[in-house]
## 1
Amino acid sequence: MSSNVLAMEPARTLHHGSKPDRAEVEAAVRTIIRWSGDNPDREGLVETPTRVTRAFEEAFVGYAEDPAAILQKSFDEIEGYDEMIVLRGIRFESHCEHHMAPILGRAWVGYMPGDRVVGISKLARVVESFAKRLQIQEKLTAQIANTINEVLNPRGVGVVIRATHHCMTTRGVRKPDTDLVTSRMLGCFRDDPQLRREFLGETA
Ligand SMILES: [Zn+2]
């Protein structure tokens, strides 16, 4: 997938077909329990479909959010501040779209402001709203950087993500000590090697 396609993808992902209701999702969880070989009606499992559905609701809350809207409120009274701004090590939990297994990681988000800055918590909220979806890390990294770039129009954006993927640490090839590092650099973060090094130094 080219970065162009990523940039054009709407921030709010559309549901395909009608959205199932909660009872349908709980029934699906009961089916998985039965298929596993256990009895969904025994005491320890009776509430499990409800709990799992609630957990998925939390895991995928990002589909109901519009990350671009989060960045709409910005400030221009910055007294000429024109140096790099970096929010470091933002913890997030996501789920991989191939196995629905957890992706646990941290994101470093930096930008060089134009004439506006955003409240720093907004940067973390943008990470959250893209993470709380079915994802691959490469796309998550690009979506965060592209959205900041498009909405805030800064001189540059850098995003680095380090994450462990449970689909390969606890299952599959079982390589527990691996993490995946991805980055996306735009504007002066891409063009200025010194700035890029300075930013990457913050992520070490
Ligand atoms: Zn996976």
## 2
Amino acid sequence: MEVDLGARSYPILIGCGLISSPDCYAPYVRGRQVLVVSNDTVAPLYLDAVERALASLDIHKVILPDGERYKDLATLNRIFDALLAERLGRDVTVIALGGGVVGDMAGFAAACYQRGVDFIQVPTTLLAQVDSSVGGKTGVNHALGKNMIGAFHQPRAVVADTDTLSTLPDRELAAGLAEVVKYGLIRDPDFVDWLEASRERLLARDADALAEAVERSCRNKAEVVAADEREAGQRALLNLGHTFGHAIEAGLGYGEWLHGEAVAAGMVMAAELSARLGWLAADDVGRIRRLLAGFGLPVDPPPDLTAERWLALMAVDKKVQGGRLRLVLLRAIGGAVVTADFDPAALRALLEQTAAASGRATA
Ligand SMILES: NC(=O)c1ccc[n+]([C@@H]2O[C@H](COP(=O)([O-])OP(=O)(O)OC[C@H]3O[C@@H](n4cnc5c(N)ncnc54)[C@H](O)[C@@H]3O)[C@@H](O)[C@H]2O)c1
Ligand SMILES: [Zn+2]
């Protein structure tokens, strides 16, 4: 599959055993030098295989500490330290081996180093294979905001080896499935049917089912990105559930809920708001809840946030434009819209109901 961006087009390779295949890298490496960026969880599992595949090249590596809390400028600098200390030139290829954190950081380092060098994404989490490795958004967090320092920089190739998903913790697999469900809800109703029918195979990590889920997710993302690379319009649909989800992540403190978990509960909130506005049938909200819950994902927001706190947290999200909150809402399963044109009273009522329901739960 190809992400069609003219001169910056690139392939997404999906399959078993790809990370140890030289053919998955050689066509996309221009010079002789490569810098593999990974972390201290993923490197012990997969770095050897990648090094074997790159054996004919001049291999350098930098291993970062694992965790979203290290996705910052200080840790990013360790990549620049390696690039400079080892005198890597403009034709170096940076190879990101890991989940979304490593991919976003290595990609951003590649965007900045000598004003831009090539990079290859080798995503090893389901979330990274279906979402973060495709589309060219790179960056790090700042104390005052997530992903606020970054750049668009497309990779030369994405190598998604579904075998790597075998070592992923269950909770991380489920978090990735939330983003998979997202593509169906936004624009692919047949995919939603398929996900409902494939629940057990996916949870059992059946290789064919996982490959198909990655493939269909990437095809959806590639189409959206090809139509709107810099998020002037349509690409914002990919943020379904994310304004609510980011409020959950920030409100509870990063790391309490995984991103995909917060997005799952956030998508249910978006569906419920859509139903309140009369845009989506109540049955469809139930169907979305069952699908996500079936993957072991949370479908209710955490009980700790008041309506005021929700609104304050949602206002910081970068999807606010001209003072009006824009949300991705559903007109149907498989039919999302980006809009600021909804009744704010309906949003407030939803948030108040959420807070009241949790008040009862904790009383
Ligand atoms: N650039 C984008 O378009 C985009 C899109 C979505 C998310 N993101 C970013 O992605 C990040 C989240 O990515 P993530 O969910 O992959 O988190 P992550 O990179 O933190 O990986 C999750 C955990 O799994 C471990 N891990 C990775 N691969 C493994 C494997 N094969 N076996 C065992 N353990 C493994 C990691 O070391 C980590 O502990 C966030 O920082 C988010 O902002 C970016
Ligand atoms: Zn997401």
## 3
Amino acid sequence: MTTKRATVESTADAYLELLAARGVEYFFANAGTDFAPLIEAFAKREATGQPVPKPLTVPHEVPAVAMAHGFTMVTGRPQAVMVHVIVGAANAIGGIMNAARSNVPMLFSAGRNPITEQGFAGSRDRPIHWAQESFDQGGLAREFVKWDYELRNFSQLETIVDRALAVAQAEPAGPVYLTLPREVLGERQETFDYAPASRAPRPAETVASRASVAKAAQMLVAASHPLIITKAVGRDPVAIPAMVALAEALGAPVVEQFHTHLNFPQDHPLHAGFDASPHFGRADAIVIVESDVPWFPSGSHPRPETKIIHVAHDPLFARYPVRGFEADVALGGQPRLTLHALADAVRGLVDPAVVAERRTRAEAEHRQLREEWATRARKASGEHPMDMAWVSKCVGDVVDDATILVNEYDFDATQGQFTVPGSYFAGSPAGGLGWGLGAALGAKLAAPDKTVIACVGDGAYMFGAPTAAHWASRAHALPTLTVIFNNSAWNAVKRAVHSFAKGGWAARSGAMPLSDLDPAPDYELVCRASGGWAEKVEKADALPDALQRALKVVREERRQALLNVICKRPA
Ligand SMILES: Cc1ncc(C[n+]2csc(CCOP(=O)(O)OP(=O)(O)O)c2C)c(N)n1
């Protein structure tokens, strides 16, 4: 392949040339002294009209990483995030854990403190340059990235960047970590020769062997009550029709258990809600699709004789230290291909009359569930302070086909009806709080024509570094709507205490240390401080109109909005 020659002034300049050439669109950054050569290179390239990944300042690492996460979860395209040496990396790592467990590819990088005390452009010249060095900077993030490396010199730049991006995107995808010493970035260069397109290996999609697919199909066809459980297969939106194909081939109900993505159209008659436990008594074969936790072994779970089939890029979840879910057949590879193969194999074997009968039963259950959920919201509609089911119903009612909902905690999925692939995202299984605000901004950046709603608990809101997130919304023209489900508490923590010590001291005394967020701040003022439109909503019947007002601001004025919705306080 012919190479391309670029005129550059430094390694940093060449790095930006290469990122732009490799299609990296954004460079989310929280800068420090380590950025000096890069900032100089950005300024030069922008002044001379050379391509760059667009630099976006994000004044806290939590929303910075979450923005990259949000952009990629919508587009599939990995972006660059850069933070300041060890201290910035420390703030970012919760978000890296989220990205790792959600299989979001990302080029995470941090400057590395200057190694030399003198003698190089970029040698130490600030007091922090001694204390900010660690013995193993890569080790800070190593457990939650797929690969890490320190860029040692200019000549390896192309190999290293191309390898980083290829490793990040290979399935199961995830973040990689590149540390960039200031001396290397600041080194003077004149020309940079590189291949116009990456030649790093891109492993082709794989699918399980025909024999293993046939074995799984036999098990499913032999079953009277096949069931499908899924959590995250919708990460690949094109896998959703494959899910439908398998469910329809079997006439099997599909449960989105602990779901982080939209995995199956929620208006489809085979969508069986969000709780698999009522099915376990009768299910005699279960397909678990991209789900790290299909049930709790200590809770309601399938019968021991139930046949279990796992479908996932990595059915072992090998990066998890402990995961004991058993399998009769495990089908690795690209789930979209596996599901189609399985659907085809099932179709050739199954009795259509049996499928039709199962489907009729599933349809009746689907209707009944929806009636129950609607009744629950109706009952909650008169409660004061508001019940979260009602808040969720009101939000669910304003979701249209051009809406993306980012849920960090409190939106109750039974009160929405998502059908468009890529329209619903919940927090990572890693549970690093503070993801929602930034993820919503990243989603808006990825899909500027969509309405993006972030539903967050008041706890999640505060973890999201809201001053920084609202600042980024205004600075980068990313108008999103934030709905705070404000119960003045960390209910998740309270629930854990009630479940651990039923009727115990904390429950009996009514005092639950370390779990209240009283006095609640006027969160609406935080959003207004960055030019947003915001209201506190205290009455249930006022919420639908408040949502309409907020959406009008977001869509027409293209300004961020926030509703601080006062909800019932948990005991
Ligand atoms: C970084 C981080 N710190 C702490 C926790 C523990 N944690 C899990 S849920 C939760 C409370 C969330 O509160 P909120 O968003 O208000 O929702 P609620 O539980 O009230 O529904 C906390 C503190 C976490 N998951 N991540």
